[in-house]
Amino acid sequence: MLAKRHNGRGKEMPDYMIESPHTREECAQAIEETLKEGEDVLKKFAWGCMSGDHTAYAMVSAGSEMEARNMVPSLVRGKARVVKVDHITPDQVRAMHKAT
């Protein structure tokens, strides 16, 4: 589970799932670009590269989709998939079942 970040007004920021595919040829540069943003940014991502899946994965809290997207190296930012995700409570699940 993510440690929730808060905006300047004490409100929790939404969570985003990031998938950042890159080619084998782009791999080293994508990782280096991420590291230049800081070790804390590098640690947010899990990398499938060692398994032959040249994709970086992350779950992050961010103020907006654009803020989350900007965590992706500019080299491959246009290929990234960034999706706002929500945690669902048992009450929400029950309400969804009642609605159908």
Protein described:
The chain has 100 residues and is α+β, with helices and mostly antiparallel strands. It has a single domain, classed as Alpha-Beta Plaits (2-Layer Sandwich), CATH 3.30.70. Helix content is 34%, strand content 22%.
3D shape: elongated
The percent range for strand residues is: 15-25%
Task: Kindly report the average pLDDT value.
Answer: 91
Helix amount:
25-40%
Q: What is the makeup of the main sheet?
A: 4 strands, antiparallel
How many discrete structural domains?
Answer: 1
Helix/strand/pairing category: alpha+beta
Quickly describe the structure:
This protein has 100 residues and is α+β, with helices and mostly antiparallel strands. The chain has a single domain, classed as Alpha-Beta Plaits (2-Layer Sandwich).
